[in-house]
Amino acid sequence: MHLSQEQIDDFNEQGWLFLPELFDAGEVALLKREAEAIYAQQRPEVWREKNGAPRTAFAAHTYNEAFRLLGAHPRLIRPVERIFGERLYMHQFKINAKAAFTGEVWQWHQDYGTWKRDDGMPEPKAMNISVFLDEVMPINGPLLLVPRSHLAGDLEATHDVETTSYPLWTLDNETVTRLVAQGGIVAPTGKPGGVLMFHGNLVHGSAGNITPYPRRIVYLTLNAVSNFIRTPTRPSFIAHRDFAPIEPVADDALGRMAQGFQAAAE
Amino acid sequence: MHLSQEQIDDFNEQGWLFLPELFDAGEVALLKREAEAIYAQQRPEVWREKNGAPRTAFAAHTYNEAFRLLGAHPRLIRPVERIFGERLYMHQFKINAKAAFTGEVWQWHQDYGTWKRDDGMPEPKAMNISVFLDEVMPINGPLLLVPRSHLAGDLEATHDVETTSYPLWTLDNETVTRLVAQGGIVAPTGKPGGVLMFHGNLVHGSAGNITPYPRRIVYLTLNAVSNFIRTPTRPSFIAHRDFAPIEPVADDALGRMAQGFQAAAE
């Protein structure tokens, strides 16, 4: 998996890049099954909506083998190494559920706003990568991105601790209106296995999901090693303290694990 | 405005019909301006979201001239008369805001569920008509319809008085999942002036709107005169008691009013 210069230019200009079906059906099926097993667990890394449905599971790469392989997957690590020109460590890893019928809103925000304020990250030299486990459709709460908003830099934000169960530094409506007037809104959709990369300062949010279609997405935040966080305040399962560079696994490691599970089941 | 036999067959089979740009830009501009003036009023017909933003304004056809003309517009009245084979009266008339940033969810429901239980309407022989005042996009909380679900008849429902400020007889997740497995979900979108008709038993809902794009829609519920409500329990501005057949106005009545306003402004 190598990004072309055109893809890199596009990312730098628009602030996001979508790579359809980067993982195949077998790899995705394994990850979905493992995600459900994790959501069923009662553990501090698993956060829930106000009604009890799973909202996000943190740090699954530290306690689940399939997600460990995903978190060190060369199809994700190599392109980001190329963009940043250095090696990476995992700043955050989560599986967001956006459950059928009950998935709640994520208000408009920049992720770097939180990484800077709460974690002491020096620069927005960390990349968000979302791996679709379900088909993302216009109707089941896709991520909404404001193209080119990453060029606005780090914007003023307010700590929202009320709207949902997850505290977030969110932007005011005037700022979002201004940026949307310039860049519009895109909602990248696609089949399971698709991968969306976006800049740490790209403004994004998502509406609730009232449909029967779940919309599970794995988020990796890959930080440049030199950009390690200086003054963390959040638990280490949310903002990791292991700054050692990620050694990518083999490209077929996840696929082989999936085949192994399948063979065992037959 | 006449529906073709093909359109009528399609409506009977799918439970909905979309007529793009039935009203022109001048007509829509007039209605938008009048809607905002109504939302700004403090009156019992104007209901608000929990945060104070307008959610819906009832019965505007009884106290606003532009909406009076819309409520008797031949482009809306004639097609429904044709489908039901008799004359119509206005059962309900409302302007739903789904305001930018704050528009909240409408849970999955059938409108006839409420008309029957709360108003004593004998049969689902009333038509929902929605007139788009803004562009309806996939991202600003479009109406989500479950095609063919009207064929399931009147389904069991629960009175939801908690989720939003508006009490509604809503369906359970198992029922919605079953119907969506059969019919899928469609989200008709289109420019201002488009008109969506759907059957009183068609299952529908809508997610919240977190975008800066408002999504105002006028809803007319046109009931067959013979199907007048027998045991109303809701205020008369929500479930009307004037069962006299609607006399359609001239096709250009709304357009002429819009031109008059424009001429006066120049």
TrEMBL record, chains A, B:
Give an example GO molecular function: dioxygenase activity
Q: Does the keyword DNA repair apply?
A: no
Entry keyword set: Dioxygenase, Oxidoreductase
Kinase: is it a keyword of this entry? no
Q: Which residues form a coiled coil?
A: none
Pfam families from the UniProt entry: PhyH (PF05721)
Q: List required co-factors.
A: Fe(2+)
Instruction: Please name the InterPro entries in this protein's record.
Output: Phytyl_CoA_dOase-like
From the Swiss-Prot or TrEMBL record, give the protein name: Phytanoyl-CoA dioxygenase family protein
State the species of origin.
Answer: Acidiphilium iwatense
